[in-house]
Task: structure prediction
Amino acid sequence: MKKIFNILLIGSMLTICNLYALPSGVFIGASLGANANKAPYGSGSESFSVVGNTTSHTVTSDIGVTTKLQMDYGLRLGYIWGINNYNAFKITVNYDYSSFFDVGFMQAGFSVDYMLSFNDKPNAWGMFIGGGYDWGFYKWGNYLRKHKNNGDNVNVDFAYLQLGFFKAFGEDGNTMLQFGLKYPFGNYDKQTINTGLDSITSYRSNLYSLFIALNYTF
Result:
């Protein structure tokens, strides 16, 4: 009788331990975000004026570096491996559409994240950290790749670090909302602009990306 009681006790404990574990399974999802893109800009103009026998020549210059936030739309497919109540790993394949200063840009890639739940109760909060790799294509990506193939010092594919927080919903935690930051390592290229009066050399790059993602695990 004691042996049967111990077996039932252990089984009950295992059931309780797994009741609110981060769920394992295939997930699908979508994301919405913003990319902080950086690039140099510059423009110049000349004007002439004649007063009597005197001709004046004026050159004006507007030059600098600007940062622009641009929308990013994404789809996600992956697998979550829930180790226990608090720990899990997430493997994601992603597709994103955005733009670089209004030039269309698409990226496809993958990432691996470690997930840590702050508690084992329903509707738990947690954090994640990981990294991945993206390949660029479409208009901006094709432009960069063309110059890269010509031997220019240009990058279009990037490794990145990402981290953020997640919120699980429901007792099973199958629905999950993520809030994250993505930091790519590298720049697209270096550009020099000369307005006739001033010149500037700076990198064109994606400084970082902010995103919200909603996933459902089957």
Summary: Confidence is low (pLDDT under 50) at residues 4-19. The chain is about 15% helix and 65% strand.
